Amino acid sequence: MKEEKWYHILGKFLGQYRRSVLLFLVYCLIFAVLFSLYDLELEAVLYAAGLCGLLTAVLALWRFRCYLAGHRTRRRILENVEFLLDELPSPETLGEADYQEMLRKLKTIFDENVIDWQNERRESMDYYTTWVHQIKTPISVMRMNLQGEDTEEHRELLAELFRVEQYVEMALNWMRLGSDSKDFLFREYALDGIIRQAIRKYAPQFIRRRIRLVYEPAEGKVLTDEKWLLFIIEQLLSNAVKYTQQGSVSIRVVPEKVLEIEDTGIGIAPEDVPRIFEKGFTGYNGRADKKSTGLGLYLCRLTAEKLSHKISVESQVGVGTKVSIDLHSDTLWVE
Question: Which of 155, 178, 193, 198 could tie 233 with a disulfide, CB 3.0–4.6 Å?
Fold first, then answer.
């Protein structure tokens, strides 16, 4: 928080006590008028006014120091008000005491609301977690039944069932990302293994859509959370398959530890590119698709931020889209 200059605070101090200064000058004027009416020497008036002015200046200087110290104390408390509210300076007036009592009352109400919200959030998380695990059972049964006979209709239903599974996982990850739980385990993982998991999962979709997959095996390790990085890659592959009618999807890792997923799909309009990571934003192509929720890339951005990865997009309408994930991390040395 930026600290104000002392002379700015002095201006506010004088503005706060301008009525007292004006009243002092009025008193001096009254004394001067009365002394002149009684033909008393003006020197006596000036001498008395000078003494009063000197005393007032000393008191004002002391008062300004207290005013400045109190202001800086309150600014320090404001930076961590939820923890330091009890350190407020002792009130000097009844009004200050009333305001401090209001603050403490509001903090009590706020704390109670936060506790209630956390409890509701925890209950919602428990419910959705249970629901996700329960819904997987009928999904698995439907998958087994559909795989029993290889027909065009069953293949279409399996593809739709796959999308249902993706939406179920997205709902659970949405809750996890928004919760206060620390569902992250940072370690060094082989990047090739993570990418291959996503490829195996989406291989049937590539085959069904007759889209060629080009993958250049990645080397080296990356500091990340395997589960959440896999979630980002899966979301990006899902978009690539959805918006690529023909052509290919390429996955590669450049030497700077940047993972690139590039497709030859319909692309993204230039005016939409800066906003594609916003919550609920679908863009022109997403609205035309009628099935886009605008949450996939938003969740990718949230997840990447929590992993300290940078995600960016380059696209050209009718040519394709390239999404880059910067997985570079600085090495820390302990001396």
Answer: 198
